[in-house]
Write a structure and sequence with these properties.
Oligomer: single chain
CATH architecture of the largest domain: 2-Layer Sandwich
Radius of gyration: 21 Å
Number of strands: 10
Strand content: 15-25%
CATH topology of the largest domain: Nucleotidyltransferase, domain 5
CATH class of the largest domain: Alpha Beta
Helix content: 25-40%
Strand order of the largest sheet: 3-2-1-4-5
Number of helices: 11
CATH superfamily of the largest domain: ATPase, nucleotide binding domain
Bound molecules: 5'-O-[(R)-(carboxyoxy)(hydroxy)phosphoryl]adenosine, zinc ion
Order of helices and strands: EEEHHEHEHHEEEHHHHEHEH
């Protein structure tokens, strides 16, 4: 039995979790900072790092307490050390190094994006995690079957991976401009639906008419596995405010979002959601075909990252799995957004192959696979 403490501070969530054998979540504590960033309608890096400094010790204590273990009982300390906001990453990395040094336990550096693809294999133990997970399509954890097609949809990534194991991944497609979560956040600002934008927009979209506006689904080249969401974002802007006169800072729009009725805003949100999810599903189909053409037909489809909490994406991915006869893995809600259970979980694979880090483990802002 292996018990690993994971830390995650790559963006604006301070998180710590204890996971047994890479899968069984004994605790999963997340201190979100939404209130601090709300007035700026986006994450302010300096504020995020400062809040991590305040939160990290209480969050680690809480994770150990809830799991009923002490530092002494752990087999390793793991930390998400890339990619992310550098000031934020440094807090988690420094804390993990200190804990590893003080307790004489091995240190493990985990890639945040790969960890998102591990989230769907976790088994919730916490009552709160279970309540948050939806029973309809969540697979309930368990190992993946390989080859697998992996999709990470978050605020920083929209990436497709051909996977031969949890750590043997090939990037086969990614966004050429905005990530899908970023597009949600920007559209939420344009539609003035509140913060955090992604979940608010998702909720609103569920009550609108997705066919009210024909917004673009950018496919790029005929065989392209890459994504583009900047055209969709601009289409939302023009739908809300009309085509501008002039360019850049001199652009003058015909109206503002305040001129729209609630129903109009809801219908645009719904049409945006339909277009964004449609684009992702179309690329997933292409990626399955691509892997099949490469003599590596996927046996399962796994998604992860904040946008995997999206109601429409979850339903459409589950439908796609049925349609293509693929085992589908969708994380429980508690493991979609940034969390440390996915870090501690994937760290188990590193632990099994003696892949440990030294105390000079760097925090790396970009450069995930
Ligand atoms: O994985 P994550 O917590 O952080 C990154 O690694 O980026 O993902 C955050 C992103 C944000 O852009 C957020 O708006 C989006 O995930 N998000 C959603 C939903 N919940 C979170 N987007 C659409 N629908 C949701 N329900
Ligand atoms: Zn993330």
């Amino acid at each position: 039995m292996t018990c690993i403490l994971g830390l995650e501070t790559s963006c604006d969530e301070t998180a710590a979790a204890v996971v047994r054998d890479g899968r069984h979540v004994l605790s999963n504590v997340v201190a979100a900072q939404h209130k601090l960033h709300e007035r700026y309608r986006g994450v302010v890096p300096e504020i995020a790092s400062r809040a991590h400094l305040q939160n990290i010790n209480p969050v680690v204590h809480e994770a150990l307490d809830q799991a009923g273990v002490s530092l002494h009982d752990l087999d390793a300390i793991a930390v998400g050390h890339r990619p992310g906001l550098i000031g934020s990453l440094l807090v988690g990395v420094s804390a993990a190094k200190t804990l590893a040094w003080a307790s004489n336990k091995p240190l493990i550096g985990v890639d945040h994006v790969r960890a998102h693809l591990h989230a769907a294999t976790l088994t919730p133990k916490m009552v709160s995690d279970t309540v948050l997970s939806d029973s309809s399509e969540h697979s309930g954890g368990g190992p993946l079957t390989f080859p697998a097609l992996g999709l990470v949809v978050s605020g920083g990534h929209t990436s497709l991976y051909a996977m031969n194991s949890p750590t043997d991944l090939t990037l086969i497609g990614s966004t050429i401009d905005d990530a899908v979560g970023e597009a949600y956040d920007k559209a939420a600002v344009i539609l003035n639906v509140g913060y955090p934008g992604g979940p608010k927009l998702d909720k609103l979209a569920q009550t609108g008419n997705p066919k009210s506006h024909d917004l673009p689904r950018s496919m790029l080249g005929k065989d392209s596995l890459d994504f583009s969401f900047s055209g969709l974002k601009t289409a939302v802007l023009y739908t809300v405010r009309g085509h501008p006169k002039g360019r850049g800072a001199a652009a003058r729009f015909q109206r503002s979002v305040e001129d729209l009725t609630e129903q109009q805003i809801t219908d645009i949100a719904s049409s945006f959601q339909a277009a964004a999810v449609d684009a992702v599903i179309k690329k997933l189909k292409r990626a399955v075909q691509h892997m099949t053409d490469q003599d590596q037909p996927p046996r399962s489809l796994v998604i992860g990252g904040g946008v995997s909490a999206n109601s429409l994406l979850r339903t459409r991915v589950a439908e796609l799995g049925k349609q293509l006869d693929l085992a589908v893995r969708i994380p429980a809600f508690a493991y979609c957004l940034d969390n440390a259970a996915m870090i501690a979980g994937l760290a188990h694979t590193h632990y099994q192959s003696d892949d440990f880090a030294d105390l000079d483990l760097p925090a790396i802002a970009s450069g995930s696979i």
